Amino acid sequence: MSTYEACTVLELGARGKHRGAAFTLAGRACVKSEGGGLWNEWTVAFDDGRRAFLAEALGSFTLFFERPTAPPFEALVVGSPVPSGFIVVERGAAKRVATWGEVPDAPRAYRYADLSSADGERATIDYGKASAPNAERTAAPVVFVGRRVRLSDLALRARDARPRFLPAPAAKAPKGLALHLDVGDEGNLSAGRFRVIGIMHRSIRIEGERYTWEEYVLHAPTEGLRWLVVSDGHWSLVETVEPGLVTEDREKRATFRGQSHRFFSSGKARVEWATGELPWEVAIGDQTSTCDYVRAPHMLSRESSADEITWSYGTYTPPDAVARAFGKRALPKPSGRAPNQPKGR
Questions:
Q1: Do residues 142 and 244 share a domain?
Q2: pLDDT, tens digit (0-9, with 9 covering 90-100), for 142-172
Q3: Which pTM value belongs to this model?
Q4: Structural domain boundaries, residue 20
Q5: Are residues 150 and 7 in the same domain?
Q6: DSSP 3-state of 131
Q7: Alpha-carbon span 62 to 56, nearest angstrom
Q8: Quick one: 147 and 196 in the same domain?
């Protein structure tokens, strides 16, 4: 089975319900962006004749319904607001690399934009035929608006087979790199049982000093993705958050869930090495701009490029808790203090 076939936890033909209305997963398109992202778009065919689509991306799910009007692609700037109350979090080009079942007629290559709002809504604009080669200028983009959902919200179950992700680039591990978890390790965390699917070793320079850390990519079929990030023996459990729910101000503070976080550092993070499978295509040397805000035991982090912005929320996790979760005898003791380490720990 190819990666494109296997990169899902759902099955064609599965039955579900949304707010009492029954539906069938009637079709699936596997989509790959120019930036290396890979996701699935499921055709949701309701028994009452309505259509929607279910996006399966980074292990999470969003149910979208069509809405009117869209700004021109050229007017969208990542990180900037649009009149509808959303901010632009990603824009780019993508290809539908494989399809199964009923999939709406659409060009194989197209442009798209993803947006996020302060009340947790998500929107995606499919510029489809409006951006296809030789498209008529009168072709209109299509807007879909929705919210993140859990499979249980839709009465859907994850299939037993493990999904596949994109292989990490083949590269020799840096000399002296010590890994504390291995690809394939499984552990019991508060949200469920997760499996390590990939590992990244990254670095950053701040005021002339080079810092490194490792990111263990975790996956659970019903919970999606998490990351265990370790630097100098300090661990944090990290998950992505909706960008529209985060606000930054000129006082170098960021607010999330009503809590203010103070600025800690910013720079360019670089991928030094990776192994296993990852949710997106990674190349050694890839760089993104980063900015970290802290409010112990949490760290609120932004990563951005010209075409995408993401936010993540990390919680300081003692090494012994990680060791217990993954059945390890012990992990190295931390050195120094972590920026999000609570007092007394």
A1: no
A2: 899 999 999 999 999 999 888 999 999 999 9
A3: 0.91
A4: 3-154
A5: yes
A6: helix
A7: 7
A8: no
